[in-house]
Amino acid sequence: MKQTLTLIALIFFCLSSSAQSGTDLEFSRTINEKVTINQVLGPVPLGKIWKLVGFSCNTSNPKFKVNGEGNGTYLRSNTGYEASLPLFFNESDEIQFVDLSTGECYVSFVEYTVIP
Question: What is the pLDDT of residues 57-77, one digit of tens each?
Fold first, then answer.
């Protein structure tokens, strides 16, 4: 009976530890960039993740697009619709800041290395 309980506990431990395995992120560097509206930033390098932690734009309703898809998501808007930070971008993602007017944005990212 004691051996059976020990075996069950060992199996449970092995299954639970393998279920928790995954990827970790390791800090790589900070990226501070000045980008003009409609300029494409990226792509995020392979094996990396970018976390947008701050921005400042001199346009009224700046939005961002990922990989050129959709109409964009507001970073800040007069209508109250806006994204909340931080935002994460995967490897190979291209980020584009867009607006109807011209201008520029200052953006801050933290880059992480994906550890399998």
Answer: 888 788 888 998 877 777 665
Which carries the bigger pLDDT value, residue 89 or residue 4?
89
**Residues sharing a CB contact under 8 Å with residue 89, sequence separation 6 or more, in sequence order:** 42, 44, 49, 50, 51, 52, 66, 95
Query: CB count, 10 Å around CB of 85?
Result: 12
Give the residue numbers spanning the domain of 109: 23-115
User: The CATH number of the domain where 46 resides is what?
Assistant: 2.60.120
Q: How many domains does the chain have?
A: 1
**Which among 99, 93, 110 has a CA at the least distance from the CA of 26?**
110
